[in-house]
Amino acid sequence: MAYSFNGIGTEYWGKRDIAPDGSYTVTKFFCLLFPVIPLGSYRVREIGEKQIYLGGTNQRYEIIEKVNLNWIQIVKVYSLYPIALGVLYLAAKWWR
Q1: Which is deepest, 17, 21, 41, 69, by most CB within 10 Å?
Q2: pTM (two decimals)
Q3: Smallest Cα–Cα separation from 55: which of 38, 81, 33?
């Protein structure tokens, strides 16, 4: 299970290799506002909505199996960093 509070903790990222039964591959990351360290990839099925409460989140997945790290997914997640940093830079510039 993944859990984060105020952006710090673990979260599942990505959605690859979607199967006919609705399951797909996600990668669990340790996050400090952004995904930092990939902890593992899993084939999962959603069993409920993502719960958000008091700054924390709890993603609801049924883990079907642990799979090898999905490096394509990891590279795609990390490729979002320049976009996120650009948005943060523009937001900081706008607030001046």
Answers
A1: 41
A2: 0.74
A3: 33
